[in-house]
């Protein structure tokens, strides 16, 4: 399967949807070549607005467009979208529940060489805390295309978390994407790995490693982190041990969301794979994944430990 | 302090600029690297209506305009005494010194090939 | 088109009623921002009772003119004007800032009929107004968008991001007002952080600028006409106003930015305003 960055899939999907849904307008903060909104811009120049390097105004303008019935997709890097313009997203978009889609690319540590200032590892936590917001973190190009369509079709604010770095395409055309519904990619009984975004591919590899050790792991893809699919998490909890995996801080992201469900409804041991409350650094994406403990091997190791613990 | 010409589209710059003027920070000297190109386009295509010089002057800054590749002019501008915070608009060429990079937007952030590297190093010798 | 003498008198009377509401509402609520509400009352009355193409029976009419109160803390003025204009019963005004009220401390478009944009966090309104104006251009609609900013609010960087964008996109269907009362929470604006010559700044950012007396209806309405006939760029009307206008003990007093009058003070204010 070819490796495609989710931002590439976003650009294509947006340009396709633009044909079908005339109310879609796209705003960017001078990063259209990187966020791939340039594909839409070329096709529909009159419906594309480059707001310049001004993210707060980007979000506010999107809100105004939404009050007039438009479906604005506002794009920039995740760090600027959710960090710099957080309060605009909160007060001008989420509070009035406006139909704005925030499609943020270059999320997570796989931004790579640009370093810590550009690696957004707290965006899920920030967006998840906002009432009315839906948070979607697709795992590959196929899922991204489906998520973009779903976001355009649902009412209300959506945060789409997209990556810069090419990732393996896991899903084929027949894949079914339902917002808010987790997907069991692999059945298992000893331990469940719940992953999101680029970590889904790593989780699947981890399950294969575990298989060789005689551990039968379930793999669940949580593409919609909010609202979270409690049902599938409780099903996963029947394995008796859970490992979560995300390219995000272990504080406030997928791991926290899963822990919230488990601790209230069905407490089982849980280990969180993610960035352990530190900032990133420059390096190649693969090197960074290794340095911050985000590889299939790291997941498998955590799974082994949690299985042992649950047996003890 | 050196600012990019695209960077000054960020509102935070204007918050800081007003503060500096109102507190008479005459020990502050800002350069604007005015190469007229930002990531996706020419700066003037993004926000061409804005008159850079008069905006800073109106805010209460001392505004100077120089050739950003002329050491004499840079030196004079830095030494220029003013009772206000000072902004030096330095006209520059993006990619200066490497002929195939000069004034080319794509070289904002592009990987250099081995061949290009050799060529650039030859020109810079 | 010059406004008739009768119409001017009518607007003056409406503004007086609006100011009375502002005093009664904030006194009843025990909190709120009377000073900045009184300063912008005449601008709102001019817009809602003379200028804007609106239908109070159909607040979400797609072709209506829009208004964004970027200085959201002046909500009492907006609510009073909307109630007077018939968007909701005047009795509702008494519920300002109370639990389960449709009248929140700052404007909420999902709760109050006639409110076009949720605001309250300073600096955000002009961006939203830009979005509305862009949508109007895109759809070939003739509606106009008005936005009212406070002068202290101009210290927010987002305002200048939006000012730059409005000029770039040639939003001549957008008119901004600056309620230039010269006072903000921590004192006179010249002391806190002076956006000294507001006019010059907007001009440098590519806007058409008009100066008016913000308490003179003829002046305000003339400026709006000029804004409508200005093509190719947005217009800002810098309105010189008096904070607390109409209530002698509040006029130009910083303390009345975010303080409600007591019962006795309210009585005194109502007496000064007259019926």
From TrEMBL, chain A:
Top class in the EC scheme: transferase
Record Gene3D superfamilies = 3.40.50.920, 3.40.50.970
Provide the species name: Fervidicola ferrireducens
Q: Which Pfam families would you find in this protein's record?
A: Transket_pyr, Transketolase_C
**Cofactor(s) for this protein?**
thiamine diphosphate
What is this enzyme's EC?
Answer: 2.2.1.7
Q: Does the keyword RNA-binding apply?
A: no
Task: Report whether Transferase shows up as a keyword of the record.
Answer: yes
Family in the record: Belongs to the transketolase family.
Q: Which InterPro entries match?
A: PDH/Transketolase, THDP-binding, Transketo_C/PFOR_II, Transketolase-like_Pyr-bd, Transketolase_C
The protein, known as: 1-deoxy-D-xylulose-5-phosphate synthase
Q: Which SMART domains match?
A: Transket_pyr (SM00861)
Query: What are the entry keywords?
Result: Thiamine pyrophosphate, Transferase
The Transketolase-like pyrimidine-binding domain, residue ranges: 4-169
Q: What SUPFAM superfamilies is this protein classified in?
A: Thiamin diphosphate-binding fold (THDP-binding) (SSF52518), TK C-terminal domain-like (SSF52922)
| PANTHER family xref list | PYRUVATE DEHYDROGENASE E1 COMPONENT, TRANSKETOLASE-LIKE PYRIMIDINE-BINDING DOMAIN-CONTAINING PROTEIN
Instruction: Recall the GO molecular function terms of this protein's record.
Output: 1-deoxy-D-xylulose-5-phosphate synthase activity
CDD domains under this entry? TPP_PYR_DXS_TK_like
TrEMBL record, chain B:
Tell me what this protein is called.
Transketolase
| EC number per UniProt | 2.2.1.1
The cross-references to PANTHER family, in alphabetical order and at most eight, read: TRANSKETOLASE N-TERMINAL SECTION-RELATED (PTHR47514:SF1)
Domain Transketolase N-terminal: start-end pairs? 2-119
According to its UniProt record, this protein's enzyme class is: transferase
Top-level taxonomic group = Bacteria
Kindly list the cofactors needed: thiamine diphosphate
**GO molecular function terms attached to this record:** transketolase activity
Any Pfam family hit: Transketolase_N
Sorted alphabetically, the keyword list is: Thiamine pyrophosphate, Transferase
Similarity field = Belongs to the transketolase family.
Q: Which InterPro entries match?
A: THDP-binding (IPR029061), Transketolase_N (IPR005474)
UniProtKB/TrEMBL annotation, chain C:
Domain (Transketolase N-terminal): residue spans on this chain: 15-274
Which controlled-vocabulary keywords does the entry list?
Metal-binding, Thiamine pyrophosphate, Transferase
Instruction: Give the signal peptide as a residue range, or say none if absent.
Output: none
Q: Which Pfam family is an annotated match for this chain, by its short name?
A: Transketolase_N
Q: Cross-referenced InterPro entries, in alphabetical order?
A: THDP-binding, Transketolase_CS, Transketolase_N
Q: Which domain of life is it from?
A: Bacteria
What family is it from? Answer: Belongs to the transketolase family.
* Stated name of the protein: Transketolase 1
Q: Which gene encodes it?
A: tktA
